[in-house]
User: What shape does this take?
Amino acid sequence: MLYSDIKKFATLTVAYNDEKHIGGMLDTFSEFYNLVLISKPWRGEHIKFDRTEEIARKMGAEVILKDFNSQKEQRQFGLDYLKELGYEYVLMIDTDEYFTKEDIEKIIKYVNENPADMYSIKTARVYWKSWKWHFKHSGGNICFKSDSKMFGKREVSKDDKILKLPGDIVFHHFSFERSLIDMLEKAETREYSRMSYSWLKKYWINWKPGDNYQDFIIEETKDIPPEILGIYIKSINMLYL
Assistant: This one.
């Protein structure tokens, strides 16, 4: 096994119509116990499910189909479920978040050596329309004790001990690497306070190479890790089935 000590770790993923990306994400975490929770939209109209469940099961994940009213409720269910299975720490990984194996090893090592209730990651690379463009983001909370109580989408009590993971760990986020139809569905069916249709039209739909915005600078991607690019290309081409 690649990792020094993963027996007390599991991953938790909430999903809805993520067939293009979830295969690559689960491939990245193939040595872990992976739990995928698929729910109808937290808001908006549910039309159909895509092949997310099929791909996740093919990749060896446990999949639970259960409807939830919010992202917070869905993640709390997953934490409680994994705690009952005996896991001490839960890595909350979205379907379109990819890590190199080296960075996963760094996360596991740091958590094992530095006990806390929650761990945040400093740096994210968010791909914009394609892997050829990206902007840098401040990251977010990524690892939780399984007995945590959610106070938000990825937040726990301020009284809990929170540590920052080493700054050289980066996660690769393909959130905005989607078709227009997929982006519109994402905005309409999930809890994105800022990503409305008007936001998409102003920033994403009308963007062209060279455009930048006050909140984020979009750069040409020149150094994407081959490991990440290979898994991503494999995933979107549906070679997992």
Q: What stands out?
A: The chain has a mean pLDDT of 89. The first strand starts at residue 9 and ends at 15. Residues 10 and 33 are 5 Å apart (CA to CA).
